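Subject line: Sequence and fold of a protein, written as structure tokens
Area: Proteins and the way their chains fold up in space.
Start of record: The labelled sequence and token lines come straight after this line.
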Amino acid sequence: MMEGEERTVAEIEQDLRKRYRKNIWCKFTKAIREYDLVQEGDKIAVCISGGKDSMLMAKLFQELKRHNKFAFDVVFLVMDPGYSPANRQRIEDNAKRLGVPVTIFESDIFSSVFHIESSPCYLCARMRRGYLYSKARELGCNKIALGHHYDDVIETILMGMLYGGQVQTMMPKLHSTNFEGMELIRPMYLIREEHIKAWRDYNGLAFLQCACKFTEACADPENKETTSKRQEVKELIRTLKRANPFVEGNIFKSVENVNLSTVIAYKQNGKKHHFLDDYDSIRGEE
């Protein structure tokens, strides 16, 4: 793109069908098919935080509605948890520039968790989810869509192992335990972050990085005390990739190829199972 030239909505949409067809559009539709994320009659709250991932997801859902073979509906939902006026305005300006008709509602989450010393980010995330579910249900939606991508998934796998002492993943869809009949879906599940960044940069778009007061300092790589665990894992993956270019795919596939006969213990539906439970009745291989 020429410097100073602003691309039109039509041009951005055309690029999703052509320039980014393989790495973005096809990955989006593959996740929807493979994990059965969108069904006829759905009304989906596409949740927009103001960052690159959720804004791209909104455009992909617009494209999906144009070409899909069955009827479903979407609402482009923005929750303002207490953004600064400048950040709120940036979200509105980007939505207008991209041709996304957003529905905005306010909450006071930032002020509610500002003085919480223990795990404020965890509490903030849980509160955000609850507000989004509530508003989505109020609008008649049966699903909320979040913009987590492939890199989020593999980082979550490693974070669980290294910091949580458990093997788990970020699931492509989940039934809500607190909002009956509601479901969370992640249609960006197979899209690499590098391709999202390429789409953003090619179109000259500037989104929110993180508008939260707690994490503003995390953008500074010199600030070792506030560097997040996710950033540490990102760097670890980059290091491992230098020696093994397939490491990211292997991390992703590791939770698709779990061999329970070689696992000491696992949990299912809240119940713990141990290999000794039926050890004497099963003869395994060394």
The domain at 9-258 is CATH 3.40.50.620 (Rossmann fold). The chain has one domain: 9-258. The longest strand covers residues 73-80. Residues 120-138 form the longest helix (19 residues).
